[in-house]
Specification:
The chain is built from 9 helices and 7 strands. By secondary structure, the protein is of the alpha/beta class.
Length: 339
């Protein structure tokens, strides 16, 4: 059977087939985690009383190690259904699942405690008796701020005053409690503006932290990397510190062992220095005289491979040739500047 070459085929049909193949390859790469032999993993479901801010794509951890991610958070009647997928992890039939706080900024993750003797059936949901949700402090503060805004503090103060007046003839314990409620109402009424400002500031701080979440996450991740690097190099740092300590010990022992030999030498050196200090003027004179001597020696030996010197008084005057000028006074060398 003869196969038709590609150049002889219809280019439109070849182009359409090529586009379909590329589209399928792109979809396969995008959904690679769902492929049976590439992505893998097992999907489980659990019921929660509330989602507590958990979202699709959040991590699933066992003993702090990431083993999967949340694939869906949906409302199912009065409960919240959470679907999550784990890979290379064992989930038992008594496992507990909880929504835990990942960072101070409110990020969440799904914490699984793998308990039980048999494997959890993926088709059976984990009931609310085996799931827990955290208490969201941020939402509580926001709700408190909204509640405080809606309270009529003046009316509240009048109500507590009425209660106090009603119980004024009651036994001392009841009257003291009513007076305390009245004082509390007056305090709340007087501090209404300050409380509102405080709660608004807390809300604004929460929004600011939420906007800077990525920066804080980067800071915390960098801190974790730094601590991890220090942990990895702990042995090297320990060896460095131990070696430094051993070196100090050896130097101390060396000085102690050679103290008998070094002490006399240092004492003698001190005496030599003392003698030199006492004779400093004599040494200065010797050095100044040695300078002139060294200059004459340099003039004698510094003109080549011969001695250049002037000697007078060696030859008697009677042996001098005629025309030799007589010496004036003592025998002096000729003046410099000519031959």
């Amino acid at each position: 059977m003869r196969i038709t070459p590609a150049r002889e085929r219809n280019p439109v049909a070849v182009g359409i087939v090529g586009l379909l193949v590329l589209t399928l390859l792109g979809l396969a790469a995008y959904r690679s985690d769902a492929l049976p032999f590439v992505g893998g993993g097992t999907t489980y479901s659990a019921d929660f009383t509330e989602s507590a801010g958990l979202d699709e794509g959040d991590e699933v951890r066992i003993a702090g190690v990431k083993v999967g991610e949340v694939t869906g958070v949906t409302l199912d009647g009065a409960k919240v259904k959470v679907d999550f997928k784990v890979k290379n992890a064992w989930i038992g039939d008594s496992s507990t699942v909880g929504i835990a706080i990942k960072t101070l900024l409110g990020d969440k993750y799904l914490a699984v405690d793998p308990l039980g003797t048999t494997e959890q059936d993926p088709g059976s949901r984990i009931t609310t008796s085996r799931t827990t949700s955290p208490y969201d402090v941020t939402q509580a503060f926001n709700g408190l701020g909204e509640t405080i805004d809606e309270i009529d503090t003046d009316q509240l103060a009048e109500s507590f005053e009425t209660i106090s007046d009603t119980f004024k003839d009651s036994p001392p314990d009841v009257r003291s409690a009513a007076d305390g409620l009245s004082a509390l109402s007056r305090t709340v009424s007087e501090r209404d503006a300050q409380l509102a400002t405080l709660l608004k500031g807390s809300k604004q701080l929460t929004k600011t932290l939420a906007n800077k979440k990525s920066s804080f996450e980067t800071l915390l991740e960098d801190g974790n990397l730094l601590l991890g690097e220090i942990q990895a190099r702990r042995d090297s740092i320990h060896l460095l510190l131990t070696g430094t300590r051993n070196l100090g010990t050896q130097l101390t022992g060396l000085v102690a062992d050679n103290n008998k030999q070094l002490k006399p030498t240092l004492d003698s050196l001190g005496r030599v220095t003392t003698v030199l200090v006492k004779n400093r003027k004599s040494l200065d004179e010797v050095l100044s005289m040695a300078g002139s001597y060294n200059r004459l020696i340099g003039n004698t030996l510094g003109n080549g491979r011969w001695f250049d010197n002037y000697v007078c008084g060696v030859v008697p005057k009677s042996y001098l040739p005629e025309g030799t000028p007589p010496a004036d006074g003592d025998c002096m060398p000729p003046k410099q500047g000519g031959r």
